[in-house]
Design brief:
The complex is a heterodimer of chains A (95) and B (510).
Chain A: E1 8-9, H1 11-33, H2 40-69, E2 73-74, H3 75-94
Antiparallel strand pairs in A: 1-2
Chain B: H1 2-30, E1 40-41, H2 51-70, H3 80-90, H4 94-121, H5 130-152, H6 157-168, H7 175-186, H8 191-224, E2 243-244, H9 246-271, H10 282-286, H11 294-303, H12 306-311, H13 313-328, H14 330-333, H15 345-367, H16 375-403, H17 421-458, H18 462-488, H19 494-509
Antiparallel strand pairs in B: 1-2
Helix pairs in contact in B: 2-4, 2-9, 3-4, 4-5, 4-9, 5-6, 5-8, 11-15, 15-16, 16-17, 17-18
Classes of the chains: A mainly alpha (95), B mainly alpha (510).
């Protein structure tokens, strides 16, 4: 059943968002492997990108769980998650 | 002869009945004959139901990071510090692993405490979950043991001095307990043996015990199911809660929480990277005020109070042991069948006082390292905190009950007045005013006592008299404000109410 309420994603949008999150997670994993982790600053970047992976994974799991149970995927937590991811990626680039 | 036979038979039956009852009690508590992995109620999709699970996630992170650290760590007094320093400076991800290992340990202890206090407030210790509570308390003690034994391992001045204080207290315990703990922790008494024993306890024995207790608790949880919500003033109508399967719903919900928790731990490690304190040496130790890590600080602060220093360490340790013992046997003290928070004002208030005292003692301990605490100061701070929390808690209970509809609540179709937004805002304002007045009152009490004592000790002077006058005025204002606020909340009864009414009446006339 497609949901068209303003505060919720429908299943197809959820799938697209999951794909985007998967790309973000994959990019951050690739970034992790490029680091020379003997220095403290590189270890901080490593931790930030690992956090990006975990948050992306949590969001994918959220979408999967709600689409399985048929509950609405609410926009507010998804948008908050994306803002958080952007902040983390920016922090990783700046660090 | 026949009578004798029938008597023996009935005796046998009676003993069989007793045995059956005992078996039934254990079965109903341990869930030996229950099915596993049953669907869970919908209301368990709530982070507060998963605090214990997050503590287990923290334990898993600890296990992974701990195994990695173990590859480089050498548990001898001469090499413990240098190997830790090597991990910090030369190993890839070394300082990151150390930091994450420490912070997840802190998170595990904090989550365990929160899990225990939440369980206390929502009465999960009541039948049939008594043994789950006792097992959980055992897991809590093992968690503290993991913290205590792990703290020594880097062999820094901070960790070694703190552990020496802890180990030194063993002698003050009753002889059999002291002998057992000395054998377990200290052995022959030399530094190499102590470090090796702490290392073994930290990486093998305590994690093993924790895992066994975890399996037992998980089994009992599966048998009894997740406890029902205990919030709200009126029990919900007896209807079946919506059930959801363990997979994918609850498993994926836990996965989400675990990922977010892991991300939070990583980011905290980045924000507050760990620095290694100097290595332990006897010369440096003599200049250093030994202090345990934050989770033992509240106990240490109790031991620093003058009255316990005078009475001796055994009395202080007995007092602390009594607190722990009361927590363990709580299911057999708080035996009432009512689980709802709003109907358990006494136990909830005691729980709030306990939590507040632990927090106050911890912060206080952090602010006064190595300083003895005078008795009157302890009475003021601890008594003031208890008074403040008790008044706020009981006042809130009265406030909520006075606002409840008469006869125990309205119908389920019409919302009760206590649930409205304006009521919530009013409650918030009233609680804020109440807390502010009580803080003023607490300061008023302590200032009045201090100035009176100074006046007696030093004799009268203008500055002392004026400060005493001001503090008594502050106290009077606070007392007046408390009485007036209580009256405004319809709590005043008898003569107080009559007097205030007369006062208000006169006030309007003037």
């Amino acid at each position: 059943m497609e949901r068209e309420l303003s505060g919720e994603f429908n299943e197809r949008t959820g799938l697209r968002v999951s794909f985007l999150l998967l790309v973000v997670a994959l990019a951050s994993v690739i970034a992790l492997w490029t680091l020379n982790t003997t220095t403290a600053s590189a270890q901080a970047v490593f931790a930030i990108y690992l956090a990006v992976d975990l948050v992306s994974f949590a969001m994918i799991s959220y979408i999967y769980r709600l689409s399985k149970t048929g509950d609405p995927i609410r926009k507010v937590p998804m948008l908050a998650g994306f803002v958080f991811l952007l902040v983390l990626i920016a922090a990783g680039i700046l660090a | 002869m026949a009578d004798q036979e029938s008597e023996t038979k009935s005796e046998l039956e009676r003993s069989e009945e007793k045995l059956a009852k005992l078996v039934q009690w254990f079965d109903s508590r341990l869930g030996l004959s229950y099915e596993l992995l049953r669907p869970a109620p919908m209301y368990s999709v709530n982070p507060f139901y998963w605090l214990g699970a997050l503590a287990v996630v923290a334990f898993a992170i600890q296990a992974v990071t701990g195994v990695m650290l173990m590859l480089y760590y050498i548990p001898t007094p001469t090499q413990a510090y240098s190997s830790t320093k090597f991990i910090f400076q030369s190993v890839s991800y070394g300082s990151f692993l150390e930091t994450v290992h420490l912070y997840t340990a802190y998170a595990m202890i904090m989550l365990t405490f929160m899990h225990m206090m939440r369980g206390y407030f929502v009465s999960v210790h009541k039948a049939p979950r008594e043994l789950m509570w006792i097992t959980g308390m055992g897991m809590g003690f093992v968690t503290l043991g993991l913290g205590f034994t792990g703290y020594l391992l880097p062999w820094t001045i901070v960790s070694k001095s703190a552990t020496d204080v802890g180990v030194g207290m063993i002698d003050a315990l009753p002889q059999p307990v002291a002998s057992f703990l000395t054998f377990l922790l200290v052995g022959g008494g030399g530094d190499p043996e102590v470090l090796l024993r702490f290392f073994d306890l930290h990486i093998v024995i305590l994690p093993g015990v924790l895992l066994v207790l975890l399996v037992a608790k998980m089994y009992m949880l599966e048998a009894h199911g997740i406890s029902e919500p205990a919030t709200g003033p009126i029990p919900p109508p007896p209807k079946k809660a919506k059930l959801i399967p363990i997979f994918p719903d609850l498993s994926f919900y836990l996965l989400e929480l675990a990922c977010l928790f892991g991300a939070a731990m990583l980011l905290i490690s980045v924000a507050f990277p760990l620095t290694l304190p100097p290595a332990y040496s006897a010369a440096l130790a003599s200049q250093y005020a030994a202090q345990p890590d934050w989770y033992f600080l509240w106990i240490y602060q109790i031991l620093k109070i003058d009255i316990f220093e005078t009475a001796g360490l055994p009395v202080a340790l007995a007092a602390v042991t009594l607190i722990f013992l009361l927590l363990v046997v709580l299911p057999f003290i708080d035996r009432g069948t009512n689980r709802r928070i709003l109907n358990r004002s006494r136990f909830v208030t005691i729980g709030l006082i306990f939590s507040a005292e632990v927090a106050v003692l911890t912060v206080w301990g952090e602010l006064t390292p190595g300083m003895a605490i005078p008795n009157e100061q302890a009475v003021l701070v601890l008594g003031g905190t208890a008074l403040l929390v008790a008044l706020v808690s009981l006042g809130s209970y009265k406030l909520i009950f006075n606002r409840l509809p008469k006869g125990g609540g309205g119908s389920s179709s019409s919302p009760a007045p206590y649930a409205t937004r304006s009521f919530n805002a009013a409650s918030l304002w009233t609680s804020g005013c109440f807390v502010a007045i009580l803080v003023l009152g607490t300061f008023g009490i302590s200032n009045s006592i201090n100035s009176t004592v100074s006046l007696i000790m030093q004799g009268p002077s203008f500055s002392l008299l004026s400060s005493m006058g001001l503090s008594f005025a502050e106290l009077s204002v606070a007392v007046f404000a408390i009485v007036y606020l209580l009256y405004r909340l319809d709590l005043g009864t008898g003569s107080i109410k009559r007097r205030i009414r007369a006062f208000e009446f006169g006030w309007r006339e003037n």
